Amino acid sequence: xxxxxxxxxxxxxxxxxxxxxxxxxxxxxxxxxxxxxxxxxxxxxxxxxxxxxxxxxxxxxxxxxxxxxxxxxxxxxxxxxxxxxxxxxxxxxxxxxxxxxxxxxxxxxxxxxxxxxxxxxxxxxxxxxxxxxxxxxxxxxxxxxxxxxxxxxxxxxxxxxxxxxxxxxxxxxxxxxxxxxxxxxxxxxxxxxxxxxxxxxxxxxxxxxxxxxxxxxxxxxxxxxxxxxxxxxxxxx
Length: 237
Known about the structure:
Elements: H1 10-20, H2 37-50, E1 53-59, E2 69-78, E3 82-91, E4 94-103, E5 106-109, E6 119-121, H3 142-145, E7 149-159, E8 165-175, H4 176-182, E9 190-198, E10 203-210, E11 219-226
Antiparallel strand pairs: 1-2, 1-11, 2-3, 3-4, 4-5, 5-6, 7-8, 8-9, 9-10, 10-11
């Protein structure tokens, strides 16, 4: 692996690797020195879309002012597809955390200022995608890896609970049409992408920067993936 620094600063990569790999362990090494960035990301995409489930966290600290949109989603995403967790949205100037269960093509949420019962919602009304689709092969984050262009490999660092893993940064450009399949509100023509991939072929982090909402400035979403193989039977409330 090259030692050239690209993408995430080394300190951030180290911090992220320690936080994100503690549960992953030192599995069989699947990423080798002779693989191209395209081959590494293709393998990582396959690993993510074939995972039974993962713990997923999407977050931003720079949602443009005046935009109705998502600032955080955290929960378990499975290949059913399904999702159970919480989504934090800014709507009409207020930030609210909403419990969400998405399964069988329906998104159920406990809306603020209601009786606490789940209601069927359209996540697009809040600038959010269907969270059940976030790891799907067609419209999930794994779908971005195969269409990322201008790929460059960056720093490789040690990480994991016992410092027994190698994590490598890859940078590139995602077409706007591909991003729109994942986050429907996306309005940019292209997006900058930084991926952190473990030596056992797991995508651990994606840092995506561009215009995610019409008539707004560029911003960054960071998506963390942990606990590959997480199993959870998610059912409608």
